Amino acid sequence: MELVLKNVRQSYGQKVIIDGLNLTFKPGIYGFMGPNGAGKSTTIRMVCTVEEPVSGGIYYNGTDIYGMGEEYRAKLGYVPQKAGYYPDFNAYNFLKYIAGLKGVEDADSVIEKCLKLVGLWEERGKKLKKYSGGMKQRVNIAQALLNDPEILILDEPTAGLDPNERMNLKNLLADLAENKIIIFATHIVSDVEDLAEQVIVLNQGTVLLNEETMAALARIQDKVWQCDLKDMGEVNRIKKEYKVSRVQRHNGMTSIRVISDVKPHEDAFAVDGSLEELYIQLIEKKRT
Question: SS3 helix, strand, coil % of the chain, rounded to 5?
Answer without folding.
Answer: 40, 30, 30
